Fold this protein.
Amino acid sequence: MKTLTSARWFALAAVPMGACAAFGLPALGQSLEQSPVVGANASSLPNRVLAQLPSQTSSGTQQFDLTPVTLPERGSAFGSMQSFKTNALYYLPSKMFLNATVENSLRLETNVLQTQKRNHLDMIYRVLPNVTLGYAINRTTRVAMNYFFFRDQYMSNASLLSRNIHSVGFRGDKDFIISPKTTVTTSFFARELFISEFDELSDLLPSVTVVRRVGRGGAIYGSALGQIRFRDVFSRFQEGDTFFSMGAVYRTPRWTLVADNTVINNYGVPALRGGVSNNTAIVTTLEAGRKISQRLPLTAFIRAEPIYNIGQASRAGFAGVNFRLFGGIRTEISKPAIFPVALRSG
């Protein structure tokens, strides 16, 4: 087992990003230990919620996103890429779905070491590609493979905190239609995380999510996600974590607004968690995104993310308040699963 300073451990901690934690991508801008992304997975619960909203573009495509703490999907890019859409629908199996995103962002972080006092401010560049490829067994049951990578490059603390993270995983999802406006989704996600200068991590992530549509372009949601983490392909148990999220999403043809709040509880083996057994964090996410092109699938966004650490005031990496302010550009392409429609004879 590699030994880590408390600050270095913070860099390898995992905090999910609100709704993101509920679906399966890496939580944006968080430590590896507290997150379902790196704690669970990071693109998105709001992403999933958006997937259930009626499309407000002429394309009418459906988004798919699979992140442990997942924000509902922001929207579809097919309306801007008709040639890609047409070829994808003709040449790929009808029940296959695909979602690929790349996010580039720059963020200001006020307490990168997450300490109670003597906070360190830094600027961080992040690149985050994420690809999900799956198959819809029927209208309510899906299986998929997911891969994502992210690199955080710190300007002032590069040697201590900069790292590369690769995630490879498999997931299954089952929808239960409660009413025309309410859906419950149960999911199970298993993944392997490969982190530069650190042991491999194996995660098992069961979750349940409730989404209710509000009006034409809005939705509210709640989710509960569990994470069981091991070192080196299930060889050593490290921790068991819970993520509880509530939030809302609103979408217009050009704008997407997301508000999310996630409570994270970590329970683990102190020797494998930088000397800390239990800790709690509250992560609030507020994001506004706007499409910047009618022809290209580009969205500019700004995101505010305060993080409140509770229960370990004396331990660096698990203490104090950290505020993150993101600005960046996201690009996305997707193909929905297509099912035959029975036509009534005249």
Q: What stands out?
A: The chain has one domain: 6-335. The chain has five helices and 13 strands. Helices lie at 6-11, 19-23, 45-51, 82-91, 158-161.
